[in-house]
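Q: What changes when iron/sulfur cluster is included in the input?
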Amino acid sequence: MTRIYPFFIPHAGCPNRCLYCRQDRITGIDQAPSPEQVAKTLDRILPPQGDGEVAFYGGTFTLLDESLQRAYCAAAARYIEAGRVGGVRISTRPDALCATDAERLRQWGVTTVEIGAQSFSSAVLRCVRRGYEPHQITASLDRLQEVGLAAGVQLMPGLPGGNRAEAMDSVAAAIALGPDFLRIYPTVILRGSALEEMWQAGEYTPLGLAEAVDWCAEILWNCRLAGVPVIRMGLQSSPELEGAVAAGPYHPAFGQLVRSRLWLRVLLRGGELTGRVKAGVHAADLAEAIGHRRQNITALSERFGTFSLYAAEIDRGHAIFGESTFSAAELAAYQE
Ligand code: SF4
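A: The predicted holo structure follows.
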């Protein structure tokens, strides 16, 4: 996985404040670093040789003054030339990336662009004040792919006006665009956001943790089938974030919960198909197959009376029941 050296530019360049967003609260940073500060930090933290990416997150990079965009990229460029880092990654909005922007970014050394799509539903996008239509997400991905930049898509299941079907349709729409990766951030309510006011007024109910984990397990399975990597599920935990979350499906190990949930689907199906109450998985898969606080073993034991797991000499992403080996992707098609 690409090593990322992140710099946060909270809300810089943003044309409005989206309903759910408080980048300043979740990063604990209220001012973007100057390009000089970025260069100084890079000089200190980059290895002598490396192929990571310097990333600018938390704002709308392509709506910053052009001179500032150029200066940020130039701060990284000298380290790219020296072989200490491989490129630059930025995040932006779908409606802030014309063909000229994409080409300019490429010339400045940007290698990856993350598009904050959030949803492909017009109704949801309107509800959360995003200010663009789904076709603009498609156009932004096309532009990145035309100039040869890696493109990622960020989605937020559980936004106001959305539901499970909308979340799954959004993932399918994103996969259809052929992105290099997805990030999935189930919606949480941040203190001081307009979404918090909606919640307090009883106009919005966030997903529960179990529900969000279940939705994301389905999303992850679909992405795996399509061969699209999901590089993150759930917000990166930090003391700042923990202090900023008012409600919603936040968990510091959210991604692990989702992968374990997918294993539960695999093991339930395998147990039912084979009648076996003992299964083997690769040693590196064992912790997630067992589940957080042995949740999966508890659920499987409730279903089958007893159930145990062991480390087996099989490929990762597979499970063996007696003599029968199955791929997890195949068994996970099953839902309770
Ligand atoms: S979601 Fe993105 S565009 Fe909206 S306020 Fe936050 S950083 Fe800015």
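Observations recorded in class: The first strand starts at residue 4 and ends at 8.
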